[in-house]
Request: fold
Amino acid sequence: MTAQPDSTPTGASAPPTGLSTLLRTRLPLNRKEVFFTATVLPAIICADRFKHFHRFLNLLGLPDVPIDVSREKANIQLFTEYCLAESIHHDPRFPGAPRDPERPDLVIFIEGSPPRLIAVEAKLYNRTQPSDLKREMERQEMHVLKYLRERWPGLQTTHTALLPEAMKAYFGDQGPTRTITWEEIIREYQDLESARYFLEILRIALEEYQELKGSEITFGANAEDKLTGADILDRHQHGDTEFQAMGRHGGINGAALKADVADGRWQRQVYEVRSSPINLPATNWFPISDFVALVSRNLSFITAFGAVLNAARGEESDDAAFGRRVRQIIMEQCGADALTAQ
Reply:
């Protein structure tokens, strides 16, 4: 067998390898929590076709149940970043579905006797206060777990926070009632070779926790609460004036809020809110009334444009004729300038 040539140039040493070395010399560690909850955690607890999933159940104090992941006999559903309100999407099986866009980091349903639902809200590097986490989990309980228990009698639910041990210790008695730690995940799965890569990623992330947490930009220092855009609009429309100001990076005219409004994610985006607009940094904070005016214009435009499309669709079936009719209706109702408005 002919030996393969060494790709390292003559006289040069081989490039350094190893996870710690790569993180120091190449791509830095991804500090986004969604990476750990949607990639690292499932890669560990679901390794080898869920063969070791009982270890995760054990951490939650739940009994071991057989897990089948074959397409024909699967008895488990596992979703990350799961929003029930968005996923139902007018499904007739779910009357009175919640509109609140609560999004646990991990939602697991296991069919059985009894059926079981597990929801996990995880934190890692974000500077989270125990009161904020408890409120977030209370909303998840109300709009996800409680709603599904009412739909499926006999459903047993487990709701847990997943935190670094240092954060759990900092929270003390002020934290959520049920909590497991990332370090417990490592200890429970440390012998699992098939998940070795992601176990080591997690181990390094926790070893660097104090440093990376310490360099996190202070977030929430001026906030009294956090609400989704949909909640903010709903409260304002119902005359609730508890909060007068809200925050988003770059302020009312910043790129972040413009992107929120452009693709509609403002409804589920969580914003900081505060009762008084006094002594707040104008670069990021603005009156809630300005936000309401902005999104209301956006909703009105979407509604009006939808009406135009429906009118044109009812009159024309040919694509070219449909396009001409849309332009004609816009000109009739809004004037020629509307076609070139940015």
